[in-house]
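Hey,
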Amino acid sequence: MMSLTAIQDMDHLKELVEKRGMLPILGTQISSFHFQFFDDKSDDKDCFLKVHNFPSNTIDGWRIKPYNTSAISRSLVVRYSSKSAEPPYIQVSVEPDETGATNKISHALSIDGIQTSSDASTVPWNIEVSKNDLLSTTPSSIGPSDVAALSTERVRAEDTGIKSITDSLIAVLRNRQVVLSKVFEDSLPDIALGLSAANIITHSVRKNPSYDSIIRNFITGLEMKSSIAELEVHCMDFLEALSNIGGPVTGAADMLRRKWMEETNLQLGTKKVKLS
């Protein structure tokens, strides 16, 4: 696994990364560079660091694909500076996908949303991986700024992280059960129809919906996910279905999105996360 994480250029945050390696979150093999978010939006819009140009097919028998998400928002980077949680990160899976895969693969992904010395908003993230070791080289054309980004080999107990996030998502639902059940009550048929179309609930729940049965189906789906990316997609499907209902239900979806993002590092913006 390769990871790209972003933190503000503050001494205590850099010390945390450089001296402690952010284990078990990010690992110990770390290189870093400085950048600014490319701010071409108005003040009320968030800015994003985005990684793209993932190959759709294998390269020399290797598969390169996003594992959790492909974007980091500036607001999450700022939020991390005041919280003792893991920083936002983009994780990329690089692994041989075929029997005849070459011993080494080299490929450049594109990072958008970064201000460079040449005013360009896209820079390469050159990834070199062999079957014996894992190396990451960071862009060299980025000038000093207020934000430090770190490209790392990420070593983490992924299952533990997924369970922790899942528990946090469920806790938000349970802590707001009273108000959510009241909001759902007057729109259960419409909610059930939307969630059934999103494959969140079963056909039997759609035919005879209740708040409890809907939430049970949603939580069951959460507990079956095996990656952070799958958690994000499941939550976004749920939130988008609720947002389409309108009125208080849309307000409830906005509240859940906000609370979930406060409690976790999931990327739950208004644009749906896609799995490749």
